[in-house]
Amino acid sequence: MNLNIPVRSFFSFEQATPRVADTRFLKGTLSGWDQANRLPDLMAIDGKDPYAEVYLGWSEEGIYLGVDVKGTPALEVQTKRPLKGDGIQIWLDTRDVREAHRASRFCHHFYFLPTGGRSDGPAAGQVRIRRARAQNKPCEPQSITVASRMSKKGYRLSAFLPADILTGFEPDDNNRFGFTYLIRDRKLGRQFWTADEPLPVAYDPSLWATVVLV
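User: That's the sequence. What structure does it adopt?
Assistant: Structure tokens below.
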């Protein structure tokens, strides 16, 4: 019986993530991102090719995300049910508790939609993590800065998560946090970093990778 469990889910990953100084990418381009901030391709472990490049960075002000989706997307965004439609999701654990199988108040789940927001622009938000031992109220969507640029060849999206919505984000005292992502596209498929369904990656932090802030 084939359970379709990704090979990479049996490994632990650790990735160094440099500080960000140039934030021009928050205009919806990838200008300003250094290649050192590009997350490595883990899809190859399972013999698959990624269709998106993902960038991650940080400063004392918060966390930065960049995504470059290549290919002709067939987006089906569901703004009222953002986790059911196409878009980007990330999970963060500001304490990186590797042995925990249930989320704590330091764990966060965010989504980003390249279109479907006000004036058909991008949208973003935070949702609760099911089965969490404890968690804070999700932040207001306007607390997240998000920009996107659509084209016939794909789309680019950049976002900024300020420190005040990231419970436990204290880079001077703790430079390690858990992280993973999922990108959904009806035509291009699902691209994920460390694990995917049927594993409980959406609420089990032990299935996320470790990011080291350098």
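The mean pLDDT is 90.
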